[in-house]
Amino acid sequence: MYVGVTSNLAKRIWEHRTKVYPESYTAKYNCIQLVYYNQFNTITDAIAEEKRIKGGSRQAKGTLISDMNYNWDDLYDSIW
């Protein structure tokens, strides 16, 4: 699982899918599905949530995803 912050989600997912940065974690582990996202009013709030999620267990991340997206469907098309 990959957790990150961006100001342009559609662009960032496209970068992951096309492996614009071939040496990155997402390219190495083929992280191409968007299964969870959240929006925040400030970058400070977004970074705080990113840190909170990264600090949690894999199980906690899975629960967070399942609560929003039970089947872990790819949400990329829904952000357009």
How is the topology of this model organized?
Layout lengths: L8 H10 L6 H4 L14 H12 L3 H11 L12
Q: Identify the overall geometry.
A: globular
Structural class: mainly alpha
| Poorly predicted segments | none
Proportion of beta-strand residues? under 5%
For the sheet with most strands, the description reads: none
Instruction: Report the C-alpha radius of gyration, rounded.
Output: 13 Å
| Termini separation | 22 Å
- Helix coverage percent of residues? 40-55%
Overall domain count: 1
Mean pLDDT: 95
The total beta strand count reads 0
Compressed to H and E, one letter per element, the order equals: HHHH
Put simply, the count of helices is 4
Brief summary:
Helices cover 46% and strands 0% of the residues.
What can you see in these coordinates?
The protein is an all-alpha fold and 80 residues long. It has one domain (9-79). The chain has helices at 9-18, 25-28, 43-54, 58-68. The mean pLDDT is 95.
Task: Output the keywords.
mainly alpha; 4 helices
